[in-house]
UniProtKB/TrEMBL annotation:
Entry binding sites for Mg(2+) 1: E106, D126, L128
Quaternary data: Homotetramer.
Pathway: Carbohydrate biosynthesis
InterPro entries: FBPase_C_dom (IPR044015), FBPase_class-1 (IPR000146), FBPase_N (IPR033391), FBPtase (IPR028343)
GO MF term list: fructose 1,6-bisphosphate 1-phosphatase activity
Protein name (record): Fructose-1,6-bisphosphatase class 1
Cofactor note (record): Binds 2 magnesium ions per subunit.
Length: 344
């Protein structure tokens, strides 16, 4: 019997399916001396819910689950049907996974106490960001933050467990549902991206060790609100235009951030007359993306201090957000310092 050594196919006739998310998580468990598999399981639970939401998103037009649900959430925003569906999917996956003791969701007025006495983690999540774009087939996403609870397992959940600054995150990530579905996350040891292979039902490592370009030439902002911007924001955008930078704004936070993370750019959502404290939520939107940006070599600020340094004071606290390539954010800060947080 003749035995031949394995030789990989480099012909280009077949694409490679490399490291699965599950295998990657197992390989990285040693980075968490304080954990014994719980965080790894939690990331798997999030990935499972993301697969389900991806399926629902892809069949939204056929299943009549696009459009408005007919209710508003705590933000005063009209809920979309997929907002509700995604919230249910993530709630179920996280509660059944057994690693989480409490959930903060954009779609829930209050903290959800899962009554899980052994749970060591608190999740803050926007189950479906940009869901109003569903009806026009534009990319949307999920954003999540993971914190270790401060109080001992078995004791009641307290404000101390929930109101943690972004610096205390142990993991954060987002899922982008677009032309392909991607899960990007960090556990404080760099940023890695995984693309979903639908025929195999697995996320595969496609973007290892993501590093944001130091500089860029893309700016992302809703220019329809320019009459409500502070002078510092106006001056910076005028400079971007004078340099012939490209304006790219999808209106889906995850999609805009993802593009700028890979290609180099800055995303700006300043305060306005209508939203003097900003519009984006600190706990489950800004903190997560700021942690990812920090690990990828980018920056995130509210115009005065780093996002990750803000001590939250309320569950659905809002904040201005300026995030992206390091040099672009630094240039914005040098122009706008002291001008973007002035009261209207």
């Amino acid at each position: 019997m003749k035995i031949l050594p394995y030789e990989p196919d480099n012909s280009g006739l077949a694409y490679s399916v490399g490291t699965t998310l599950d295998r990657f998580i197992k390989l990285k468990q040693s980075e968490f001396p304080f954990a014994s598999g719980e965080l790894s399981q939690l990331l798997r639970d999030i990935a499972l819910a993301a697969k389900i939401v991806n399926r629902e998103t892809n069949r939204a037009g056929l299943a009549n689950i696009g459009g408005a649900f007919g209710q508003t959430n705590v933000q005063g925003e009209e809920q979309q049907k997929l907002d509700v569906i995604a919230n249910i999917r993530f709630m179920r996956a996280l509660s059944k996974g057994g690693e989480v003791c409490a959930i903060v969701s954009e779609e829930e007025d209050s903290v959800i106490d899962l009554q899980n006495k052994s749970g060591k983690y608190v999740i803050a999540i926007d189950p479906l960001d940009g869901s109003s774009n569903i009806d026009v087939n534009i990319s949307i996403g999920t954003i999540f933050s993971i914190y270790r609870r401060k109080t001992p397992p078995g004791s009641p959940i307290t404000k101390e467990d929930i109101m943690q600054p972004g610096r205390d995150q142990v993991a954060a990530g987002y899922v982008l549902y677009g032309s392909s579905t991607m899960l990007v996350y960090t556990t404080g040891h760099g940023v890695n991206g995984f693309t979903y292979e639908t025929s195999l039902g697995e996320f595969f490592l496609s973007h290892p060790s993501i590093k944001a370009p130091l500089d860029g030439s893309i700016y992302s902002i809703n220019e329809g609100l320019q009459n409500q911007w502070k002078n510092g924001v106006k001056e910076y955008i005028d400079e971007c235009k004078s340099k012939n930078f490209a304006a790219r704004y999808i209106g889906s936070l995850v999609a805009d951030f993802h593009r700028n993370l890979l290609k180099g750019g800055i995303y700006l959502y300043p305060s306005t007359e209508k939203n003097p404290d900003g519009k984006l939520r600190l706990l489950y939107e800004a903190n997560a993306l700021a942690f990812i940006a920090d690990q990828a070599g980018a920056l995130a600020t509210n115009g005065e201090i780093p996002i990750l340094n803000i001590q939250p004071s309320s569950l659905h606290q809002r904040t201005p957000l300026f995030i992206g390539s390091k040099k672009m954010v630094q240039r914005f800060e040098s122009i706008s310092k002291g001008k973007v947080l002035q009261k209207y």
